[in-house]
Amino acid sequence: MTAPEQTVCGVGEALCASTDIVERGRAWVWDVLEHGRPVRAFALRFDGQLIGYLNRCVHVAAEMDWQPGEFLDTDQRWIVCSIHGATYEPANGRCVGGPCGRGRLKPVAVRELDGQVYWYPSLDIRPVPFDTAPSETLP
Ligand code: FES
């Protein structure tokens, strides 16, 4: 499996404690701006790795969670869109079934450091203004 491509600008935004995101459990969902437009992102722990994506299906630009923060199917194997069932590989966001075709979820860089989870803005995915969360710089 290939890790999602993540363009990182270097300054992380504090998201939550590492213990807040458990293996194949509920995702941490937060607000970001993509090209200045509000959208949600989510972070999951899958096979021990933190993964982050925009909460936007490839099929139709809709949020995918079937309950707040719930993205995985009942077997906790796939990310499944609640709208029409598009199915994605958690490790790389690639569509593996359903109406998402050859698409892929848009990755958001996430990382753990000293028990804290940070996300890393990119050129097109930015923090919502007036967020007063502490920051961390990549080494
Ligand atoms: S909007 Fe996600 S499968 Fe259609």
Q: What can you see in these coordinates?
A:
With 139 residues, this protein is an all-beta fold. Helices cover 0% and strands 38% of the residues. It is built from no helices and eleven strands. The protein has strands spanning 11-17, 28-34, 37-46, 49-54, 79-80, 87-88, 95-97, 109-113, 116-120, 125-127, 135-137. The strands form three sheets. A four-stranded antiparallel beta sheet has the order 8-9-1-11, with no helix packed on it. Strands 4-3-2-10 form a four-stranded antiparallel beta sheet, with no helix packed on it. It is globular, with a radius of gyration of 14 Å. The two termini are 26 Å apart. Bound molecules: FE2/S2 (inorganic) cluster. FE2/S2 (inorganic) cluster binds next to loops.
- Ends apart, CA distance between termini: 26 Å
Q: How many strands?
A: 11
Read across the widest sheet, the strand sequence of neighbours is 8-9-1-11
Q: Which ligands appear in the coordinates?
A: FE2/S2 (inorganic) cluster
Oligomer: single chain
Using the CA coordinates, give the radius of gyration: 14 Å
- Major pleated sheet: 4 strands, antiparallel
Q: What's the total helix number?
A: 0
* Range of strand content: 35-45%
What is the arithmetic mean of pLDDT? 91
How do the helices and strands follow one another from N- to C-terminus? EEEEEEEEEEE
What general outline do the C-alpha atoms trace?
globular
Task: Give the helix level as a range of percent.
Answer: under 10%
> Spans with pLDDT under 50 lasting ≥5 residues?
1-5
User: Helix/strand/pairing class, anyone?
Assistant: mainly beta
